[in-house]
Amino acid sequence: MNEAVEALSETVAELATSWQQAAPAPFAPFPGEHAGRELEAELEGMTDATLIHTLEQLQCVQRATDALRVRVAAEIGHRSRPELGPERLCTKQGSTSAPGFLAEVMRVPVGEAAKLQRLGERTATGLSFTGAVILPPFPAVAAALAEHLIGTDAAALIVRMLEAVAPRADHEHMRAAEDALVAAAATLSVADVAQLCRLWRDRLDQDGIRPREDELRHQRALTRRTTADGMIELHASCDPESGGVLLTAIDAIVSAQLHANRDNTDPALVDGRDLAAMRLDALVDIARHGLGCDNAQPALRGATLMVTTTLGELTSGIGSARIDGVAECISADSARRLAASADLIPAVLGGDSELLDLGRTRRHFSRAQRRALALRDGGCAWPGCPHPPGYTQAHHISWWKRDKGRTDLSNGILLCSGHHHRIHRDGWQIEIRRNVPWFIPPPNVDPARTPRRGGRIQIDTLAG
């Protein structure tokens, strides 16, 4: 062990010297407390090539140090094995386990310490009772670590995968997989190595794919909680099949929107949402589609979003409203926007909470009217929006409550959730001219208020 420590220490020293020589003199690799500003100045003065080379050399130093750390962690684990009882190293140091003691000394999470210990044990050379050398269980990984070709994260991934499939995999096939993974880990990112490990796992243990799939499926879950500021947090754990279906649907909507933004030359029409917001809105649009779809599951066809507010608040847009099942209030303005959906029953209360109106059939656009709007608008009528009709809401151009708007085709328009929000939030106006929707921006978006043509592009309306 001492020889290994000395050899690795010499390697670290050599790499540090090489790194220092590659940097502009007088560059100090390990600055004192007063050298911070000087170090920053030297870094800023490096060329791109020198900076990258410096980082590469530092990574070599890190790998050399990690190789030594896993050996030391394994030795501490060996001296802390349970059969030693009170003489365990960790026990004498006041800790109940080797990983706990390592975590305390190295100031790292217990999981990280345990990973280093396990990796060290599985890549260390041992001695039998007769004094014969016992090769490590994973010699290719051990050699790559000793030669500083791969890091501990990649090495741990490879070892963990090979151990998992060992009971059912062919020995020669495992050796081939280990060699291939070690060679790949020398040039690939840790994420790529993880993906390769999964592919090799399924190649080596094909009989285990179905049990793993079933296990993951049993772990699927969707949890929800309301934060102190009223946000509803959803945390989903999806098995591969469920996640694939969900992500495909979300990504299709988001991808189409990104393409529309890329092709849009009018800055006023570019979607300003970040990717995270676009994904959430896509999920909401999918849910809206399910609630309003003719072929929806019976449970969805019977589901109703109930929003409660007062008549005065709904009319003025000032005040609050409540959604059944949601703890946080929404604004009356948001309630009016929700009221444009045919899948909502607005419960309007008087001053004494007297139920005045629980929705009227003529309040909402009929399915026949929605089909006519879809024929005219092609989907979301916002210029360049790719959302199909199934992911839109029928919106009153002249609002139902505020403007006493009629539920006529001439007063209807299809909008997706994101653009419905934008219309209400930013104050865009909509006009229907010769059966074509036009969007007029507010002055803060376009002082000239130049109308933007929306809806489906048709040959007979291009000249309009």
UniProtKB/TrEMBL annotation:
<dbReference type="InterPro" id="IPR003870">
    <property type="entry name" value="DUF222"/>
</dbReference>
<protein>
    <submittedName>
        <fullName>Uncharacterized protein</fullName>
    </submittedName>
</protein>
<feature type="domain" description="DUF222">
    <location>
        <begin position="54"/>
        <end position="377"/>
    </location>
</feature>
<feature type="domain" description="HNH nuclease">
    <location>
        <begin position="380"/>
        <end position="425"/>
    </location>
</feature>
<dbReference type="Pfam" id="PF02720">
    <property type="entry name" value="DUF222"/>
</dbReference>
<dbReference type="InterPro" id="IPR003615">
    <property type="entry name" value="HNH_nuc"/>
</dbReference>
<dbReference type="Pfam" id="PF13391">
    <property type="entry name" value="HNH_2"/>
</dbReference>
